[in-house]
């Protein structure tokens, strides 16, 4: 039995803290002895974490080496291969490594993007034809020796070349096939260097999740690459996850790898009889991913044994190695420190450490049946699963019957009619100016919320603090002359958590941190049961804000699909059904807001795109229910209530038809960094509803000038008419400072005035 990787951030986020204090000391001009001191601390923390995490793996076949990282494993591989962007040529060592991740005086950071359909972000490699690769295998070698010296049997975890290439970009516009030969050369040099220092017969697990996407232009190289790796004397396991990978399996069974890792949790098609037969005939080991590395529920051992039965009818038992479905990186460390959570719900959860225990138990039952030594644990597992199934906490008849009787899921009138009524009722001009919702989250604001949470101040003090922030926000927006105002979201720490905390069916961990990127961790809400909304969640603040102004106050909600995609979701109900329940919660809120006199309501779907399946063949199904859920929420809006949505990306080419079908009256999107290029798709498909393409990038502290925004608006007007356009920043402003936000928004309004004057 095996895992594919363990979370590295530490039970108490020790790595995060050590990294951040090192970065603070290493900041330009930092005292060098302080920097050295913090570096030593960081190295020690890292070493201690590895040692501790390996100790949990002592009963497994191997401990995983090189799953540790100071930032990200894709970045580690770039560094090991010498895939260094030219702008960082003056740097070396950790300074170089962290500059690539975070930017430095030498240049901007490398791009970061999501690792498949997870919320983990990797650093995108920048390949180019003239790149001079330099191999540096030190990190892998050191960690390998470290594990050996502790008496463990190490397995090196390494990102496979196809996944590395597939997730990279080229900075010189060359085709991937043009950079492949040199990259392959370098990758093999790295492997050779591992063999020459660590000896032949080292075991390497190559992560190739890219294979789950199906055939691509590089599939014809798979056999040749992995055969050559075997020739170096390396024993290789090729592992795929997050979906099934039957096409790659077909090829890999004929290559010289020793084992194949497949995900049987998220890739049910891996159970395909032909694939299993091919594996059995090849005599290769099958690393069967059965313990879910993506979710946090106690495994149902009976159902896992069922799958193992199916597999072992075809694949001989001694070839089957039970494994986690993917790295445990995507789940929190351990539930040991959850002292506040409801005990019953807590008993249903399994984080990384507990999952290793489940692997051991499953292995024992699979090999020996239920015997004295595993009987109690097996029964305990059974009863946890039974309890959960029957628990009253999960089932809510009222919610279920509402879902069963759900009928109208579309707005009554078509957009053409709605917009006439809305334009009349709301009276906003062409190129109406607005923002995406949040205003700066100041340290004072965070302190206020913290104090209230801890009970250090009463609700009166808290509420007056929030009210005073809202007052300032409204006053500022009126002063600069924005057309549609927002309350600024001062009461929210996070756009999902804020709603989850007020909905039934959600629970929050105290310490369930999951690495998102680098030192940044998130604590996803846990949806454990039927969800409903006991009472209004935002009306109090939005109506207060509206009472301060004659202008239109836009109400802010997070959409059902985004709430779903940023949470750990119950696994006893289909995601689409969980999402449907969430969409009713949001529908209820929209209904209350409009009854309270709010005329524009924005339903943010920042994570709509994240839920897209990895396999093309499954996209349609996702699109259809995600779309339906958004519409369940928005269809309660009356004809005169204007529904906005916001999405944090710019690439709409693939999904434009779905966006159109969502039928939001106004959609705001991220386009500032791409001029008007990305807007063109809206024109091309004849998108008729209104659009607010971001006119400046909020991710940087830079203040855009009037002229710059003016030009940007002119560009937009080349694509869509002014009657269809709204003017707003790219995204919410909560990460910015007031001294950046104020002049930026003022310039935005002035730029619009300039365009309007010209007519
Ligand atoms: N309304 C949210 C905000 O302004 C939207 C955030 C987001 O799209 N990520 O912060
Ligand atoms: Zn956004």
From TrEMBL:
Zn(2+) binds at residues 646, 648, 670, 731. Its EC number is 2.1.1.14. L-methionine binds at residues 436-438, 489, 604. It holds the Pfam family Meth_synt_1. One of its GO terms (biological process) is methionine biosynthetic process. PANTHER family: 5-METHYLTETRAHYDROPTEROYLTRIGLUTAMATE--HOMOCYSTEINE METHYLTRANSFERASE (PTHR30519). Catalyzes the transfer of a methyl group from 5-methyltetrahydrofolate to homocysteine resulting in methionine formation. This is 5-methyltetrahydropteroyltriglutamate--homocysteine S-methyltransferase. It comes from Helicobacter saguini.
């Amino acid at each position: 039995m095996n895992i594919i990787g363990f979370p590295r951030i530490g039970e108490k986020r020790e790595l995060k803290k050590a990294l951040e204090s090192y970065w603070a000391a290493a900041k330009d001009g930092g005292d060098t002895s302080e920097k050295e001191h913090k570096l030593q601390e960081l190295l020690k923390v890292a070493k201690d974490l590895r040692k501790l995490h390996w100790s949990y793996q002592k009963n497994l076949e191997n401990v995983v080496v090189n799953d540790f990282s100071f930032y990200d494993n894709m970045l580690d591989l770039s560094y090991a291969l010498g895939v260094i962007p030219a702008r960082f040529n003056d740097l070396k060592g950790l300074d170089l490594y962290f500059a690539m991740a975070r930017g430095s005086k030498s240049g901007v950071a490398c791009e970061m993007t999501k690792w498949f359909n997870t919320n983990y972000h990797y650093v995108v490699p920048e390949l180019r034809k003239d790149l001079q690769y330099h191999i540096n295998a030190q990190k892998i070698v050191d960690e390998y020796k470290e594990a050996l010296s502790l008496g463990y049997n190490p397995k090196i975890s390494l990102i496979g070349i196809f996944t590395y290439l597939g997730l990279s970009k080229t900075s010189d516009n060359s085709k991937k096939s043009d950079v492949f030969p040199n990259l392959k050369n370098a990758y093999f040099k790295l492997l050779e260097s591992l063999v020459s220092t660590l000896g032949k017969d080292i075991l390497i697990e190559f992560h190739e999740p890219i294979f789950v996407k199906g055939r691509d232009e590089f599939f014809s190289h798979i056999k040749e690459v992995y055969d050559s790796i075997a020739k170096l004397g390396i024993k290789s396991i090729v592992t795929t996850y997050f979906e099934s990978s039957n096409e790659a399996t077909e090829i890999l069974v004929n290559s010289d790898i020793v084992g194949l890792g497949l995900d049987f949790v998220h890739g049910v098609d891996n159970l395909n009889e032909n694939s299993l037969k091919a594996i059995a005939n090849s005599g290769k080991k099958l690393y069967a991913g059965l313990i879910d590395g993506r979710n946090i529920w106690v495994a149902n051992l009976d159902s896992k044994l069922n799958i193992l039965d199916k597999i072992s009818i075809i694949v001989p038992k001694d070839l089957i190695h039970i494994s986690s479905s993917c790295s445990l990186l995507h789940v929190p460390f351990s539930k040991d420190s959850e002292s506040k959570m409801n005990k019953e719900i807590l008993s249903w959860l399994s984080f990384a450490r507990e999952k290793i225990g489940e692997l051991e138990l499953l292995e024992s039952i699979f090999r020996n049946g239920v015997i004295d030594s595993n009987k109690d644990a097996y029964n305990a597992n059974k009863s946890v699963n039974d309890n959960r199934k029957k628990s009253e906490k999960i089932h809510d008849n009222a919610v279920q019957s509402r879902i069963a009787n759900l009928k109208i899921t579309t707005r009554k009138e078509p957009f053409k009619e709605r917009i006439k009524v809305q334009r009349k009722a709301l009276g906003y001009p062409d190129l109406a100016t607005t923002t995406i919702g949040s205003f700066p989250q100041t340290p004072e604001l965070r302190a206020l919320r913290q104090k209230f949470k801890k009970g250090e101040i009463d609700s009166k003090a808290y509420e007056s603090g929030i009210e005073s922030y809202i007052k300032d926000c409204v006053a500022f927006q009126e002063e600069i002359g924005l057309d549609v105002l927002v309350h600024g979201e001062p009461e929210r720490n996070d756009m999902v958590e804020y709603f989850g905390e007020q909905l039934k069916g959600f629970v929050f961990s105290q310490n369930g941190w999951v690495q998102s990127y680098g030192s940044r961790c998130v604590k996803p809400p846990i949806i454990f049961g039927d969800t409903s909304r006991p009472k209004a969640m935002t009306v109090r603040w939005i109506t207060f804000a509206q009472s301060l102004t004659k202008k239109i106050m836009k109400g802010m909600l997070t959409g059902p699909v985004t709430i779903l995609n940023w949470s750990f979701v119950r696994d006893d109900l289909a995601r689409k059904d969980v999402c449907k329940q969430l969409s009713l919660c949001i529908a209820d809120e929209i209904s209350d807001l409009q009854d309270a006199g709010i005329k524009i309501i924005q339903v943010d779907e920042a994570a709509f795109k994240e839920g897209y399946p990895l396999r093309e063949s499954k996209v349609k199904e996702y699109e259809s229910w995600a779309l339906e859920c958004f519409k369940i929420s928005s269809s309660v809006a009356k004809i005169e209530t204007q529904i906005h949505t916001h999405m944090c990306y710019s690439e709409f080419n693939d999904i434009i038809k779905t966006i159109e079908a969502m039928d939001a009256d106004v959609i705001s999107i991220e386009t500032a960094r791409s001029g008007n290029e990305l807007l063109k798709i809206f024109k091309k498909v004849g998108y008729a509803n209104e659009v607010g393409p971001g006119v400046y990038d909020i991710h940087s502290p830079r203040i855009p000038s009037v002229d710059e925004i003016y030009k940007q608006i002119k560009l937009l007007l080349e694509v869509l008419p002014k009657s269809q356009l709204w003017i707003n920043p790219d995204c919410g402003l909560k990460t910015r400072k007031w001294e950046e936000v104020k002049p930026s928004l003022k310039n935005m309004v002035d730029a619009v005035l300039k365009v309007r004057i010209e007519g």
